[in-house]
Amino acid sequence: MLDTLDVNFHGKRHTDFDLKRIIRAQEQGFDIPVTAYLCGVSIRARAGIGVVFGHKRKDQYGRFGDGHLIRTSDVLKVEREGKFWVMTTENSRYVLATFQRGNGRSSLHEFLRLSRTLHPTPRILQ
């Protein structure tokens, strides 16, 4: 019997539209450094969910690799910077290149509407 471990990484290929939007965002530039670019984004339970590209903390084990799904920590704020939305979490800043089809933009608008009354998730639950 071999001592092997079969690991499946779940990811998604970026579409041409996603890549064009990422290139436009990179060309725009941002005053404060960006951690990564997200595609297919929606905001659920105060967390951003999307497909990552160009994450600054990508490592040799594949964590935060391009095309991987990511769930962020609590979203603190989302602001428009130039032509793109930028989502700030406790430790990171993400450029929202594209939204999830069907409910991504509506989840952003719902977050913006409720963000004044929502309370952060307690640290022990994150």
Write a brief structural summary.
The protein is built from two helices and five strands, in the order αβββββα. With 126 residues, the chain is an alpha+beta fold.
Looking at this protein, list some descriptive labels.
126 residues; globular; 5-stranded mixed β-barrel; 2 helices
The number of strands is 5
- What is the percent of helical residues? 10-25%
Low-confidence stretches: 5-9
In what order do the strands lie side by side in the largest sheet? 1-2-3-4-5
**What is the rounded Rg?**
16 Å
Mean pLDDT: 86
The end-to-end span amounts to: 39 Å
Q: Strand-and-helix sequence, N→C?
A: HEEEEEH
Query: What kind of sheet is the major sheet?
Result: 5 strands, mixed, barrel
Describe the model.
The radius of gyration is 16 Å and the shape is globular. The N and C termini lie far apart (39 Å). It is built from 2 helices and 5 strands; from the N terminus they run αβββββα. A hairpin with a 2-residue loop joins β1 and β2. It has a 5-stranded mixed beta barrel. The chain has 126 residues and is of the alpha+beta class. 23% of the residues are buried.
